Amino acid sequence: MKELLLIGCVFALFACTDKTSNKPQPILLEQEKLSDTTQLSSVASEEFSVNSIPYSEVVIGAFPYMTLPEGLKAQNKPFQKEYDVCFFPINGVMTPFEGKLYKLNVVKEPGKEFSKRYFEKSLGTYLESIGGVKVFEGYISKDEYYRYHKEDPNKGDEGDIGYFDEHITFYMIRCKDQGNIYVQYSADNYSGKLNVLQEKQLNQTIKKISSKEIVHTLNDQGKVVLYINFDINKATITKEGDEVVMQIVKALEENNSLAISIDGHTDDTGEGEYNIKLSKERADAVVSKLVQNGINSTRVSANGYGATRPLVPNDTEENKAKNRRVELVKRN
Questions:
Q1: Most buried residue among 108, 140, 171, 284 by CB atoms closer than 10 A?
Q2: What digits encode the pLDDT tens for the residues 263-286?
Q3: Model pTM greater than 0.70?
Q4: CATH topology (fold) of 211-330
Protein backbone atom coordinates (compact mmCIF):
# COMPACT_ATOMS: atom_id res chain seq x y z
CA MET A 1 0.00 0.00 0.00
CA LYS A 2 2.86 2.41 0.84
CA GLU A 3 4.49 1.57 -2.51
CA LEU A 4 1.28 2.37 -4.39
CA LEU A 5 0.92 5.61 -2.47
CA LEU A 6 4.53 6.58 -3.32
CA ILE A 7 4.04 5.85 -7.03
CA GLY A 8 0.85 7.88 -7.04
CA CYS A 9 2.68 10.84 -5.50
CA VAL A 10 5.40 10.65 -8.15
CA PHE A 11 2.81 10.71 -10.97
CA ALA A 12 1.01 13.58 -9.29
CA LEU A 13 4.28 15.51 -9.03
CA PHE A 14 4.97 15.18 -12.76
CA ALA A 15 1.39 16.10 -13.60
CA CYS A 16 1.61 19.27 -11.51
CA THR A 17 4.94 20.20 -13.08
CA ASP A 18 3.51 19.90 -16.62
CA LYS A 19 0.43 21.98 -15.85
CA THR A 20 2.08 24.79 -13.92
CA SER A 21 5.20 25.35 -16.04
CA ASN A 22 4.49 28.42 -18.16
CA LYS A 23 8.10 29.29 -18.94
CA PRO A 24 8.68 29.42 -22.75
CA GLN A 25 10.74 26.47 -23.91
CA PRO A 26 13.03 26.23 -26.94
CA ILE A 27 11.14 24.76 -29.87
CA LEU A 28 12.42 21.30 -30.76
CA LEU A 29 12.55 21.03 -34.51
CA GLU A 30 13.11 17.32 -34.97
CA GLN A 31 11.12 15.03 -37.27
CA GLU A 32 9.44 17.88 -39.14
CA LYS A 33 9.24 18.31 -42.89
CA LEU A 34 10.98 21.22 -44.64
CA SER A 35 8.37 23.62 -46.01
CA ASP A 36 8.86 27.20 -47.19
CA THR A 37 12.52 27.70 -46.30
CA THR A 38 15.39 27.44 -48.75
CA GLN A 39 19.17 27.04 -48.80
CA LEU A 40 19.24 24.29 -46.15
CA SER A 41 21.83 21.53 -46.15
CA SER A 42 20.56 18.05 -46.91
CA VAL A 43 21.68 16.89 -43.46
CA ALA A 44 19.18 19.16 -41.75
CA SER A 45 16.45 19.37 -44.37
CA GLU A 46 14.05 16.93 -42.65
CA GLU A 47 14.62 18.35 -39.17
CA PHE A 48 13.72 22.00 -39.59
CA SER A 49 10.50 23.75 -40.50
CA VAL A 50 10.07 27.50 -40.59
CA ASN A 51 6.34 26.90 -40.06
CA SER A 52 7.17 25.69 -36.55
CA ILE A 53 8.10 29.25 -35.62
CA PRO A 54 5.15 31.52 -34.76
CA TYR A 55 5.00 34.99 -36.33
CA SER A 56 6.14 37.84 -34.13
CA GLU A 57 3.47 40.46 -33.49
CA VAL A 58 6.04 43.04 -32.33
CA VAL A 59 7.36 45.95 -34.40
CA ILE A 60 11.06 45.08 -34.44
CA GLY A 61 12.49 48.17 -36.14
CA ALA A 62 15.08 48.43 -38.88
CA PHE A 63 17.97 46.11 -39.73
CA PRO A 64 20.00 44.98 -37.75
CA TYR A 65 17.06 45.31 -35.33
CA MET A 66 18.96 45.99 -32.09
CA THR A 67 21.69 48.01 -30.43
CA LEU A 68 24.42 46.50 -28.31
CA PRO A 69 23.92 46.35 -24.53
CA GLU A 70 25.05 49.46 -22.68
CA GLY A 71 28.79 49.48 -22.00
CA LEU A 72 29.63 47.36 -25.05
CA LYS A 73 30.77 48.35 -28.54
CA ALA A 74 31.86 46.88 -31.87
CA GLN A 75 35.56 46.10 -31.81
CA ASN A 76 36.04 46.94 -35.48
CA LYS A 77 33.93 47.98 -38.43
CA PRO A 78 31.02 45.51 -38.71
CA PHE A 79 31.01 43.00 -41.57
CA GLN A 80 27.98 44.02 -43.66
CA LYS A 81 26.75 42.66 -46.98
CA GLU A 82 23.51 43.35 -48.82
CA TYR A 83 23.55 39.71 -49.94
CA ASP A 84 25.73 36.93 -48.58
CA VAL A 85 25.58 33.61 -46.77
CA CYS A 86 25.85 32.79 -43.07
CA PHE A 87 25.75 29.39 -41.35
CA PHE A 88 23.46 28.81 -38.36
CA PRO A 89 23.14 25.63 -36.22
CA ILE A 90 19.99 23.59 -36.83
CA ASN A 91 20.04 20.63 -34.42
CA GLY A 92 23.83 20.95 -34.36
CA VAL A 93 24.17 21.08 -38.15
CA MET A 94 25.64 24.31 -39.51
CA THR A 95 23.11 25.30 -42.16
CA PRO A 96 23.49 28.07 -44.79
CA PHE A 97 20.95 30.88 -45.08
CA GLU A 98 21.26 33.75 -47.54
CA GLY A 99 20.29 37.40 -47.35
CA LYS A 100 21.30 40.71 -45.81
CA LEU A 101 24.11 40.06 -43.34
CA TYR A 102 25.58 41.86 -40.33
CA LYS A 103 28.42 40.41 -38.21
CA LEU A 104 30.65 41.94 -35.55
CA ASN A 105 33.00 41.32 -32.67
CA VAL A 106 31.84 42.90 -29.40
CA VAL A 107 34.12 44.29 -26.68
CA LYS A 108 33.76 46.49 -23.59
CA GLU A 109 33.86 50.25 -23.76
CA PRO A 110 36.81 51.99 -22.03
CA GLY A 111 36.43 51.91 -18.26
CA LYS A 112 33.83 49.12 -18.40
CA GLU A 113 34.07 45.39 -17.85
CA PHE A 114 32.99 42.63 -20.20
CA SER A 115 30.62 40.12 -18.66
CA LYS A 116 29.73 37.01 -20.63
CA ARG A 117 26.56 36.60 -18.59
CA TYR A 118 25.52 40.22 -19.14
CA PHE A 119 26.07 39.99 -22.91
CA GLU A 120 24.20 36.70 -23.35
CA LYS A 121 21.31 37.46 -21.03
CA SER A 122 20.82 40.94 -22.50
CA LEU A 123 20.55 39.54 -26.02
CA GLY A 124 18.41 36.54 -25.08
CA THR A 125 15.94 38.59 -23.04
CA TYR A 126 15.61 41.20 -25.75
CA LEU A 127 15.15 38.70 -28.58
CA GLU A 128 12.41 36.90 -26.67
CA SER A 129 10.70 40.24 -26.00
CA ILE A 130 10.37 40.87 -29.75
CA GLY A 131 9.08 37.40 -30.56
CA GLY A 132 12.35 35.56 -31.06
CA VAL A 133 12.33 31.79 -30.58
CA LYS A 134 15.43 29.94 -29.42
CA VAL A 135 16.21 27.30 -32.04
CA PHE A 136 19.54 26.04 -30.70
CA GLU A 137 21.90 26.47 -27.76
CA GLY A 138 25.03 24.41 -27.41
CA TYR A 139 28.09 23.27 -29.31
CA ILE A 140 28.63 21.79 -32.75
CA SER A 141 30.83 18.72 -32.99
CA LYS A 142 34.38 18.72 -34.26
CA ASP A 143 33.26 16.54 -37.18
CA GLU A 144 30.52 19.03 -38.03
CA TYR A 145 33.01 21.90 -38.05
CA TYR A 146 35.28 20.07 -40.45
CA ARG A 147 32.30 19.08 -42.60
CA TYR A 148 31.11 22.62 -43.25
CA HIS A 149 33.84 25.19 -42.57
CA LYS A 150 35.33 25.24 -46.07
CA GLU A 151 31.86 25.94 -47.50
CA ASP A 152 31.72 29.24 -45.60
CA PRO A 153 33.31 31.97 -47.77
CA ASN A 154 33.54 34.31 -44.76
CA LYS A 155 35.25 31.91 -42.34
CA GLY A 156 37.64 33.83 -40.13
CA ASP A 157 36.20 37.25 -40.95
CA GLU A 158 34.82 39.75 -38.48
CA GLY A 159 32.28 38.27 -36.07
CA ASP A 160 32.61 34.73 -37.41
CA ILE A 161 30.69 32.13 -35.37
CA GLY A 162 30.68 28.36 -35.76
CA TYR A 163 33.72 26.66 -34.23
CA PHE A 164 33.53 23.25 -32.57
CA ASP A 165 34.63 24.50 -29.11
CA GLU A 166 32.29 27.53 -29.20
CA HIS A 167 29.02 27.83 -27.29
CA ILE A 168 26.40 29.14 -29.76
CA THR A 169 22.92 30.51 -29.11
CA PHE A 170 20.62 30.83 -32.12
CA TYR A 171 17.25 32.62 -32.29
CA MET A 172 14.83 33.04 -35.15
CA ILE A 173 12.28 35.83 -35.58
CA ARG A 174 9.56 35.28 -38.15
CA CYS A 175 7.91 38.50 -39.37
CA LYS A 176 5.10 38.95 -41.87
CA ASP A 177 6.53 42.23 -43.15
CA GLN A 178 10.29 41.60 -42.92
CA GLY A 179 10.52 37.87 -43.49
CA ASN A 180 12.71 35.43 -41.59
CA ILE A 181 15.42 36.88 -39.36
CA TYR A 182 18.21 34.76 -37.88
CA VAL A 183 20.33 35.87 -34.92
CA GLN A 184 23.19 33.97 -33.29
CA TYR A 185 25.73 34.98 -30.70
CA SER A 186 28.59 33.59 -28.65
CA ALA A 187 30.91 34.91 -25.95
CA ASP A 188 33.79 34.15 -23.62
CA ASN A 189 34.95 36.12 -20.58
CA TYR A 190 36.58 38.82 -22.70
CA SER A 191 34.44 39.46 -25.78
CA GLY A 192 31.41 38.40 -27.76
CA LYS A 193 30.24 37.91 -31.33
CA LEU A 194 26.91 38.67 -32.97
CA ASN A 195 25.45 37.69 -36.36
CA VAL A 196 22.16 38.93 -37.83
CA LEU A 197 20.77 37.81 -41.19
CA GLN A 198 17.52 38.88 -42.84
CA GLU A 199 16.70 36.09 -45.27
CA LYS A 200 15.91 37.17 -48.82
CA GLN A 201 16.12 35.88 -52.36
CA LEU A 202 18.86 36.94 -54.75
CA ASN A 203 17.92 39.86 -57.00
CA GLN A 204 19.32 38.58 -60.28
CA THR A 205 21.02 41.41 -62.19
CA ILE A 206 22.95 39.35 -64.77
CA LYS A 207 21.62 39.76 -68.29
CA LYS A 208 22.23 37.63 -71.30
CA ILE A 209 24.87 39.18 -73.56
CA SER A 210 23.18 40.77 -76.58
CA SER A 211 24.48 42.51 -79.68
CA LYS A 212 22.69 45.70 -78.63
CA GLU A 213 24.42 45.66 -75.23
CA ILE A 214 27.79 45.13 -76.92
CA VAL A 215 27.33 48.07 -79.30
CA HIS A 216 25.94 50.34 -76.59
CA THR A 217 28.88 49.64 -74.24
CA LEU A 218 31.46 50.02 -77.03
CA ASN A 219 30.02 53.40 -78.02
CA ASP A 220 29.66 54.53 -74.42
CA GLN A 221 32.92 53.25 -72.89
CA GLY A 222 35.12 52.29 -75.83
CA LYS A 223 35.39 48.68 -74.72
CA VAL A 224 33.30 45.83 -73.34
CA VAL A 225 34.44 43.03 -71.03
CA LEU A 226 33.16 39.57 -71.98
CA TYR A 227 33.60 36.16 -70.40
CA ILE A 228 33.84 33.71 -73.26
CA ASN A 229 34.24 30.12 -72.07
CA PHE A 230 37.15 28.06 -73.40
CA ASP A 231 38.26 24.53 -72.64
CA ILE A 232 40.72 24.46 -69.72
CA ASN A 233 44.21 25.57 -70.79
CA LYS A 234 43.11 25.54 -74.45
CA ALA A 235 41.92 27.99 -77.06
CA THR A 236 38.90 25.88 -77.98
CA ILE A 237 35.68 27.87 -77.57
CA THR A 238 32.95 25.98 -75.74
CA LYS A 239 29.29 25.80 -76.80
CA GLU A 240 28.43 28.51 -74.26
CA GLY A 241 31.30 30.63 -75.56
CA ASP A 242 29.97 30.24 -79.12
CA GLU A 243 26.71 31.89 -78.07
CA VAL A 244 28.60 34.99 -76.93
CA VAL A 245 30.72 35.07 -80.11
CA MET A 246 27.58 34.98 -82.26
CA GLN A 247 26.33 38.11 -80.49
CA ILE A 248 29.60 39.80 -81.49
CA VAL A 249 28.96 38.69 -85.07
CA LYS A 250 25.48 40.19 -84.94
CA ALA A 251 26.79 43.45 -83.48
CA LEU A 252 29.33 43.80 -86.30
CA GLU A 253 26.77 42.88 -88.96
CA GLU A 254 24.38 45.56 -87.72
CA ASN A 255 27.12 48.21 -87.49
CA ASN A 256 29.14 47.98 -90.70
CA SER A 257 31.57 50.76 -89.79
CA LEU A 258 32.53 49.21 -86.44
CA ALA A 259 36.07 47.81 -86.12
CA ILE A 260 37.34 46.16 -82.95
CA SER A 261 40.36 44.60 -81.32
CA ILE A 262 39.87 41.28 -79.49
CA ASP A 263 42.15 41.35 -76.41
CA GLY A 264 42.71 38.14 -74.45
CA HIS A 265 43.58 38.16 -70.72
CA THR A 266 44.35 35.51 -68.09
CA ASP A 267 44.89 35.36 -64.33
CA ASP A 268 48.41 34.98 -62.90
CA THR A 269 48.33 31.19 -62.56
CA GLY A 270 51.21 29.64 -64.49
CA GLU A 271 54.19 31.11 -66.32
CA GLY A 272 53.96 34.61 -67.75
CA GLU A 273 55.03 33.71 -71.30
CA TYR A 274 52.63 30.77 -71.41
CA ASN A 275 49.74 32.99 -70.30
CA ILE A 276 50.50 35.57 -72.99
CA LYS A 277 50.64 32.82 -75.63
CA LEU A 278 47.36 31.25 -74.40
CA SER A 279 45.54 34.58 -74.28
CA LYS A 280 46.68 35.43 -77.84
CA GLU A 281 45.56 32.01 -79.11
CA ARG A 282 42.15 32.53 -77.53
CA ALA A 283 41.81 35.99 -79.06
CA ASP A 284 42.81 34.49 -82.43
CA ALA A 285 40.14 31.80 -81.99
CA VAL A 286 37.48 34.47 -81.52
CA VAL A 287 38.68 36.39 -84.58
CA SER A 288 38.68 33.18 -86.62
CA LYS A 289 35.09 32.43 -85.58
CA LEU A 290 34.02 35.97 -86.55
CA VAL A 291 35.65 35.68 -89.97
CA GLN A 292 34.09 32.24 -90.51
CA ASN A 293 30.72 33.88 -89.97
CA GLY A 294 31.23 36.55 -92.62
CA ILE A 295 32.99 39.39 -90.81
CA ASN A 296 35.72 41.02 -92.89
CA SER A 297 39.13 40.27 -91.35
CA THR A 298 40.17 43.93 -91.70
CA ARG A 299 37.57 44.88 -89.06
CA VAL A 300 38.94 42.61 -86.33
CA SER A 301 42.38 42.05 -84.82
CA ALA A 302 43.73 39.99 -81.91
CA ASN A 303 46.05 40.69 -78.99
CA GLY A 304 47.15 38.59 -76.02
CA TYR A 305 48.19 40.22 -72.74
CA GLY A 306 48.27 37.25 -70.37
CA ALA A 307 48.17 38.41 -66.76
CA THR A 308 49.85 41.77 -67.39
CA ARG A 309 46.62 43.85 -67.25
CA PRO A 310 44.48 42.51 -64.40
CA LEU A 311 41.11 44.09 -63.66
CA VAL A 312 41.46 43.23 -59.97
CA PRO A 313 44.23 41.73 -57.78
CA ASN A 314 44.70 37.99 -58.30
CA ASP A 315 44.28 37.32 -54.57
CA THR A 316 41.11 35.18 -54.56
CA GLU A 317 39.54 32.62 -56.86
CA GLU A 318 36.69 35.04 -57.50
CA ASN A 319 39.10 37.75 -58.62
CA LYS A 320 41.07 35.32 -60.77
CA ALA A 321 37.84 34.44 -62.58
CA LYS A 322 37.23 38.15 -63.26
CA ASN A 323 40.67 38.47 -64.80
CA ARG A 324 40.15 35.53 -67.19
CA ARG A 325 38.35 37.57 -69.82
CA VAL A 326 38.14 38.82 -73.38
CA GLU A 327 37.84 42.54 -74.05
CA LEU A 328 36.43 44.07 -77.21
CA VAL A 329 38.10 47.44 -77.78
CA LYS A 330 36.68 49.89 -80.30
CA ARG A 331 39.26 50.89 -82.94
CA ASN A 332 37.37 53.66 -84.71
A1: 171
A2: 999 999 989 999 999 999 999 999
A3: no
A4: 60s Ribosomal Protein L30; Chain: A; (3.30.1330)
